[in-house]
Amino acid sequence: MTETARPFTLRRRREDPREEDRRTLAECLAQTNRQIAQAYQSFNAVGDPDLIESYVYEINALQSRYSYLLRRLKELDGAAEQA
Fold first, then answer.
1. What pLDDT score does 51 carry?
2. What is the pTM assigned to this prediction?
3. Spatial CA neighbour of 24 closest among 16, 36, 13
4. How many CB atoms lie within 10 A of CB 62?
5. What is the pLDDT, as a whole number, of residue 79?
6. I need a labelling partner for 33 at 20 to 30 A (CA). Which of 23, 61, 74, 82 fits?
7. What is the separation of C-alpha 20 from the centre of its chain, rounded to a whole number of angstroms?
């Protein structure tokens, strides 16, 4: 008699919700960092005063978002150390 091979499946361990939040925040932080770099490139490539102004606002907004995400990530890491 021959046995049929059963497919091997990996069971994923249930992830800690804080670790999932941490990974999501880190991904958003990296994405925001890329957006800032792209906005700076665009800022350096334009000459129209209106576009320059719009990129200044965009860069400021992205930097504020980056600061917020970094602060949240640090808070989450601090909470994990205390737990």
1. 97
2. 0.75
3. 16
4. 19
5. 74
6. 82
7. 12
Q: How many residues does the chain have?
A: 83
> Topology of 17-82 in CATH?
Methane Monooxygenase Hydroxylase; Chain G, domain 1 (1.20.58)
Concatenated DSSP letters of 2-36: -PPPPPP-PPPPPPPHHHHHHHHHHHHHHHHHHHH
SS3 percent helix, strand, coil of the chain, rounded to 5, is 75, 0, 25
CA contacts within 13 A on the Cβ side of 67: 6
Number of C-alpha atoms within 13 angstroms, CB side, residue 4? Answer: 2
Whole-angstrom Cα Rg for the chain: 22
Model pLDDT for residues 25-69, shown as the tens digit of each residue: 999 999 999 999 999 999 999 999 999 999 999 999 999 999 999
The residue extents of the domains of the chain are 17-82
